[in-house]
Design a protein that fits this description.
Family: Belongs to the TBCC family.
Helix content: 25-40%
Subcellular location: Cytoplasm, Cytoskeleton, Microtubule organizing center, Centrosome; Cytoplasm, Cytoskeleton, Spindle pole
Number of helices: 17
Main location: cytoplasm
Number of strands: 23
Number of domains: 3
Organism: Atlantisia rogersi (Inaccessible Island rail)
Radius of gyration: 26 Å
Shape: elongated
Strand content: 15-25%
Protein name: TBCC domain-containing protein 1
Largest sheet: 15 strands, mixed
Length: 577
């Protein structure tokens, strides 16, 4: 009889951890097995059980032949999965911002990952940080993280074991290398299938060398250490019996009723490989906190108006089940021709998916965990600080205004991003006519929200994007917004809070453009004042200016934005919550 344990694949490693782009060939399963053996053999050099940035840089650049920028990207991407104290993130941001050049930055990264001998043999690191751990983490978890990148591997015949030829309905990649349009990072059914298909490979990646056969595979007598099960908790969590408490895999695996199924031996503190694999497969179920559950049985939120004269129905939902161990989820779809503005407890720390929203202005003014904007057109998104990542996919003519840890773009055209970010924006495949500009707005709680998610004003790499999927090394896919086209953005809502200006200010060239424009306005006002117009002439002149302003509002689409700020009639109000 199978013990009453339910396991599921966690959302975060795929949603936040998987780079939404095909991984380099050198991060395939074969090379990850070689990396595992190499690191274990060099435990005395600091490669195992914990891996530091200098050691990973050596493996990635020297053995796997990855560029240093890409090596740091994957390393730092894994860091964003770890729940770190916001104050330590702010301390690291201060240390990073204080570096004068790339060499000094590299020294700081190395120091933050290396324990240094001190009194009593204890290490020291950045002030306030646990010695030698900020850029140092478990190797086995990092190997699983690198393996998870295969979820976005693109090929006609999936080369990993257990997957079939694509069905006739599967969209093949285009000639430009654009992905099929399906976002696997959000689809928990894809996560479940991926883990089921590759569970044996991932387990073998965690085995001690003596437990592997000559061909680097497991046998019937292979044993799995408890440390390997702890690493698997990176991917799995679940509940036992009728309890609703979410627990990591390693706690559930040690539960006495499960020992017969998973082959645990208290004497050796190891698990039988075949029985463990069988037990994991039998316990795996749908993630109750994932997108599928949210869409199927989530709580419906009446945040959006239903626009008359259209078949589109706005749909907004959040998790019905919430747990302290799991980030909440909010999914909104088909918001059309309206302004939607929320600062809500429902949004705090949430993964947000915005899908197929058109001709709208969406304000989500709360600290968020991650945001994905997909298949949206002709819309503006103003977001609260995003702790992990903002990913924009298959969008056209959108404007995104955000302070975020990371921004990535794929298959997006004619869009502008006003950002403050400590990492380089990632330009993936299929983009066209992308503009970057400095973050240019504020709302009263903005700086408080930034502190809550550990985001500072420096360093700010808004203007130095990284081409991850180099399409003929074409830097022409993006440009920096000319200062002459730059205007500040006013968030038209009253809130309590202390922030009264754009955090960090503006770059000199953009501030100068605003100042020059303000001077022109003052000169114009002075000219009108000194013109000596009669009362009738002033009235006629005012009507002329108002008519011209109205024409401008219509031509630019700003009239819709102003109209949509008028509160809806009673009975159709956006719901609170």
């Amino acid at each position: 009889e199978v013990a009453p344990v339910r396991l599921w694949v966690k959302t975060e490693p795929f949603l936040v951890g998987a780079l939404p782009a095909p991984p380099p060939a050198r991060l395939g399963p074969h090379y990850l097995r070689k990396m595992a053996a190499y690191a274990r053999a060099r435990a005395a050099e600091g490669c195992f059980p914990r891996l530091s940035w200098p050691r990973w840089r050596h493996i990635a650049c020297g053995k796997l032949q990855l560029g240093r920028g890409l090596a740091w990207l994957y390393f730092e991407l894994f860091l964003s999965l770890l729940r770190r104290d916001p104050s330590s993130l702010l301390e690291w941001a201060e240390a990073e911002a204080g570096c004068a050049d790339a060499d000094e930055l590299e020294q700081e990264r190395s120091k933050a990952g290396e324990p240094h001998p001190g009194p009593g043999g204890r290490g020291r690191a950045l002030p306030g940080l646990t010695p030698g751990c900020f850029f140092c983490f478990p190797l086995l978890q990092f190997l699983l993280f690198l393996y998870v990148q295969q979820v976005n591997k693109v090929s006609l015949r999936r080369s990993l074991i257990g997957e079939e030829w694509p069905s006739p309905r599967t969209k093949a990649p285009g000639l430009t290398g654009k992905p099929s349009g399906e976002n696997k990072n959000w689809n928990d059914q894809d996560h479940h299938a991926f883990v089921q298909n590759h569970l044996s490979d991932m387990l073998e990646l965690l085995l001690e060398p003596e437990q592997l056969s000559a061909s680097s595979h497991s046998t019937h007598s292979t044993l799995v250490t408890y440390e390997a099960i702890c690493a698997l908790s990176f991917l799995f969590e679940g509940t036992m019996s009728k309890s609703r408490t979410v627990r990591p895999l390693h706690e559930l695996a040690l539960w006495q009723p499960c020992h017969r199924q998973n082959g645990y031996s208290k004497i050796s503190r190891t698990f039988s490989f075949p029985r463990l694999e069988s037990w994991l497969r039998s316990c795996l179920t749908t993630n109750p906190f994932g997108m599928t559950a949210c869409l199927k049985s989530g709580k419906k939120l009446a945040w959006a108006q239903q626009v008359e004269g259209t078949t589109r129905r706005a749909k907004i939902a959040c998790n019905t089940r919430v747990a302290p161990e799991v980030f909440p989820m909010v999914i909104m779809s088909q918001v059309y021709k309206q302004t939607l503005a929320k600062s809500s407890d429902t949004l705090i720390g949430a993964h947000v998916r915005i899908h197929r929203c058109n001709e709208s202005f969406i304000y989500l003014l709360s600290p968020l965990r991650s945001v994905t904007i997909e298949k949206c057109q002709n819309s503006t998104f103003v977001l609260g600080p995003v702790q992990a990542s903002v990913h924009v996919h298959s969008c056209d003519n959108v404007r995104v205004i955000v302070v975020c840890h990371r921004l990535s773009l794929a298959s997006t055209a004619g869009s502008t991003f006003y950002i403050l970010t400590p990492t380089q924006p990632l330009i993936l495949s299929g983009n066209r006519a992308i503009s970057f500009a400095p973050f240019h707005t504020h709302y009263p709680m903005l700086e408080d929200h930034m502190a809550q998610v550990g985001l500072a004003t420096l360093p700010n790499h808004w203007d130095s994007p990284m081409l991850v999927c180099k399409e003929s090394s074409d830097t022409g896919v993006f440009s920096l917004l000319p200062p002459s086209d730059f205007y500040t953005f006013v968030i038209p809502f009253e809130m309590e809070g202390d922030t009264t200006e754009t955090p960090g200010g503006l770059p000199p060239a953009y501030q100068k453009a605003l100042s020059q424009r303000q001077q022109k306005v003052q000169i114009w006002q002075k000219t009108v004042k000194e013109a000596g117009l009669t009362k009738d002439q002033r009235k006629q002149f005012q009507m002329l200016v108002e008519n011209k302003f109205y024409e401008w509002l219509v031509q630019t689409g700003n009239l819709q934005q102003l109209d949509s700020l008028v509160p809806p009639a009673v009975g159709s109000k956006q719901a609170a919550g």
